[in-house]
């Protein structure tokens, strides 16, 4: 598609969106703006944007699509400022913020002026920030939630999806309330827990400096997200306050429940507590990232050492099992990578699973 896409906020998500759009629509012009001039310079050096705008207002005046990719409190402010800007009549405006209710509330004034605003949230990311961490494939196979209001015709939602096709994400439409309730449970509250675990370890560290030196795999896995951008998370907590307050109450009740089981040494119940959590966790489609699992995919947890891919493909070749696609989709900190192998049929996938199990002790999962 031809046109000018203006990205405000050239960080991890804004940069990744710019790259994904350019990949699918090379004829589009990507214009960017960031309050941090270093990010603009870096975005140009890395060819994430074609041009830098002189200001938010200047960039918006020539845009066919506007993507707000700033922390959510900044997005709210920009939405207010936009009310006085001169925009193209057919402009499509969207955001990528992790919360939706407050953003949509703010965007109502813009919608009242006839500007097509569609709230958005690509549900993939990282604890890293800044344009240097941006990747064109960041959102591939992830959920991408859209929260159009009734004022937005479906044809405009389809137009936005066409622009965002390069993300290769699975679009899902939700109400802003449902969005904030669900993301509160599976994203926002877990970030609070991760940060609180780090705080707890830090307090113990003052008593014994061995704490951080011994902090190993489990602690690192569960606290990775505590390394995320504090400004972004401060804004999210304030925006989703109501949901989070009720989650705090439920979490405290949950902690009291397990605390009491431990206090009373209820061994059978403690076992069940972990078993039920394991069963639910193991059933999550974690490795596919997205809504629609690709068929005949097999995921293999592989240790991160050179030659491991050729080792696995070698075993499969010996048994004449052909692979249609192979990809490392995720690297867990330092220990494992996840290898995604795709097959033409269910039978091939089953044979591959047996073959890998026979030759290695790597865990395999279906999508
Ligand atoms: N990081 C994730 O995992 C993730 C995933 C999905 C959505 N989001 C959402 O995406 C948005 C951006 O997050 P990110 O991870 O890219 O953060 P980031 O820190 O990497 O990038 C944000 C950028 O916005 C710029 N910025 C801040 N205020 C600005 C303003 N007023 N005008 C112009 N630029 C401004 C900052 O300088 C920074 O470069 C947030 O709303 C966040 O909630 C984040
Ligand atoms: O992988 C991570 O580091 C993330 O925290 C990504 C994550 C999430 O909670 O899943 C963070 C915030 C977003 O709004 C969407 C995705």
From TrEMBL:
A GO MF annotation of the entry reads: prephenate dehydrogenase (NAD+) activity
Q: Does the keyword Amino-acid biosynthesis apply?
A: yes
| PROSITE patterns for this protein | ACT, PDH_ADH
| Pathway given in the UniProt record | Amino-acid biosynthesis; L-tyrosine biosynthesis; (4-hydroxyphenyl)pyruvate from prephenate (NAD(+) route): step 1/1
Gene3D superfamilies, sorted: 3.30.70.260, 6-phosphogluconate dehydrogenase C-terminal like domain, NAD(P)-binding Rossmann-like Domain
Write out the catalysed reaction: prephenate + NAD(+) = 3-(4-hydroxyphenyl)pyruvate + CO2 + NADH
**Which residues are the signal sequence here?**
none
Domain ACT, first and last residues per copy: 297-367
E.C. number, please?
A: 1.3.1.12
* Domain named Prephenate/arogenate dehydrogenase: residues: 3-292
What is the uppermost EC class here?
A: oxidoreductase
Q: Which UniProt keywords apply?
A: Amino-acid biosynthesis, Aromatic amino acid biosynthesis, NAD, Oxidoreductase, Tyrosine biosynthesis
Q: Which family does it belong to?
A: Belongs to the prephenate/arogenate dehydrogenase family.
This chain belongs to the protein called Prephenate dehydrogenase
């Amino acid at each position: 598609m031809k046109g000018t896409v203006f990205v405000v906020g050239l960080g991890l998500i804004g940069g990744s969106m710019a790259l994904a759009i350019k990949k699918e629509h090379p004829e589009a012009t990507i214009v960017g703006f960031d309050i941090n001039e270093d990010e603009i310079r870096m975005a140009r050096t890395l060819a994430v944007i074609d041009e830098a705008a002189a200001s938010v207002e200047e960039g918006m005046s020539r845009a066919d699509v506007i993507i707000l990719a700033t922390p959510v409190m900044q997005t709210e402010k920009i939405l207010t400022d936009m009310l006085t800007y001169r925009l193209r009549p057919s402009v499509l405006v969207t955001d990528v913020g992790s919360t939706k209710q407050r953003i949509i509330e703010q965007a109502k004034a813009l919608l009242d002026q006839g500007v097509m605003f569609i709230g958005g949230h690509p549900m993939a990311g990282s604890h890293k920030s800044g344009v240097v961490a941006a990747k064109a494939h960041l959102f591939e196979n992830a959920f991408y939630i859209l929260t159009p209001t009734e004022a937005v015709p479906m044809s405009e939602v389809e137009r936005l999806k066409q622009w965002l096709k390069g993300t290769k994400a699975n679009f899902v439409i939700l109400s802003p309330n449902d969005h904030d309730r669900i993301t509160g449970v599976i994203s926002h509250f877990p970030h609070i827990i991760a940060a609180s675990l780090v705080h707890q370890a830090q307090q113990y560290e003052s008593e014994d400096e061995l704490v951080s030196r011994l902090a190993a795999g489990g602690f690192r896995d569960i606290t990775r997200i505590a390394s995320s951008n504090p400004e972004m998370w401060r804004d999210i907590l304030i925006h989703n306050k109501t949901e989070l307050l009720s989650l705090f109450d439920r979490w405290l009740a949950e902690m009291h429940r397990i605390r009491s089981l431990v206090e009373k040494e209820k061994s059978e119940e403690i076992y069940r507590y972990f078993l039920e959590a394991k069963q639910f966790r193991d059933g999550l489609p974690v490795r596919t990232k997205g809504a629609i699992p690709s068929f005949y995919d097999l995921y293999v947890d592989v240790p991160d050492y050179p030659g491991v891919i050729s080792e696995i493909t070698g075993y499969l070749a010996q048994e004449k099992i052909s692979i249609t696609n192979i990809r490392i989709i995720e690297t867990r900190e330092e220990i494992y990578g996840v290898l995604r192998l795709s097959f033409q049929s269910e039978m091939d996938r089953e044979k591959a699973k047996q073959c890998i199990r026979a030759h290695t002790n790597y865990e395999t999962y279906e999508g």
